[in-house]
Amino acid sequence: HLDCVDPTSLYVYEVSSASNTPVGAYNLTAVPTQQLKVGCFIKSVNGLTSTDKMTEAVDKDDVLELVVQNPYMFELEVEKRGKSLGMELKFWESGCALMIGEIVDGAVKSSGARVKPKDRIVQVNGISGGNDTLLRQLKGNDRVKLTISRCP
Predict the structure, then answer these.
(1) Contact, 124 vs 134, CB < 8 A?
(2) Which pLDDT belongs to residue 138?
């Protein structure tokens, strides 16, 4: 399954291992470093680079040529100290990552954290799950440990 919230890349948040699916069949024969995995970013589908066009190609085309990038992952801790985090968060309804849209005044900016727009929060305090789970963890704790995924 693909998260399409970023207009320039698709974020892979679920991969079928069933051999009767195109991705499952591909992954069975691909070397591990070239398999499509959860957390990968798809930057191009059949030469198309906009999310709308890429998703259209995935739905319609019989043969897909993908440009895929593995994520750069890192962790950081932020203490809110009564402030909001100061991040505009965007997410795909059924996804499991929160994309940072904008960073404004708040705890993240004050902390000097090295996050930037389009980074994705994939875990909060070691907990992953759906967007609701991540948002609850962000709101319910004064100190948060964020696991960030960045498209290089």
Answers:
(1) yes
(2) 95
